Amino acid sequence: MITLSSDFGSPYPAVMKGVLCSRTDTHLVDIAHDFPRQDVRTAAFWLREVLPYFPSAVHLVVVDPGVGTERKALVVRAGEHALVGPDNGILLPAARALAEGE
After folding, report:
1. Would 39 be classed as within a structural domain?
2. Which pTM value belongs to this model?
């Protein structure tokens, strides 16, 4: 299962899903695509909050004021979870929660 979160708004999540579906046969779940533009804190909060409801999932988050720059992407693995997103702190609260066993 892959969860998807972004500040893209419509129709861009559909494009992201199309790319993912062409590469994998997994279940895609939308968390939200209407986070306030570039609001890393809000998206980070909600990523952390939904973790317990999606065991064994990959969580893909794209909310980044530096999108389109050379900012690196991160993959954080913890137990059955994989967190994927920009290196802007968005994954930190969720990674901490997983490390603490929440």
Report:
1. yes
2. 0.90
